[in-house]
Amino acid sequence: MTNDEEEVxxxxxxxxxEEVAEEVIVxxxxxxxxxxxxxxxxxxxxxxxNKDLGVVPEKTSSKSDGIGYGEKAFLVxxxxxxxxxxxxxxxxxxxxxxxxxxxxxxxxxAKLKETRDLAQTADATPKGNRSNSVPTDSVEYWMTKPIxxxxxxxxxxxxxKKLEQGKSGGVFYNx
Length: 175
Hints:
The chain is mainly alpha-helical. Among the domains are: 69-124, no CATH class; 127-162, no CATH class. The chain is built from seven helices and two strands; from the N terminus they run ββααααααα. It has a two-stranded antiparallel sheet with strand order 1-2. A hairpin with a 4-residue loop joins strand 1 (7-11) and strand 2 (16-20). The longest helix has 19 residues, at 35-53.
């Protein structure tokens, strides 16, 4: 089209003729290099520069040493939390099996059950040296003893507890 010639477009809604000037179509530039080719070129340049400088690049491992958030979520969904995740991680390092294979492994299941049983037993066992209902590492036990008999590490707690009881007591002996 030249400047003298104009294209006429009829608007179907208004049935009027409109004069339209010459349309300019802009096409986006096509990339001359693909992403993979650019990455390979840049890695090659980096390797040459490192070689010239005498720098040895660290090799990155595709497999991480720790358990990621996705694996943790999978373990929580299967009832494994806290310290038990370390047990899973150790088993994965030792055997080289995947997370699913470890969880299905009967030896791992037995080890997990043993660990849970030991933790449950430790939680159920009363703390302290005595077999009566009050353990010897509690503040209540040592409050009834003279301060000279109280171990050094418990004295501050015992004194604080006695002061607290003294403040909360009433005026009369039975209040």
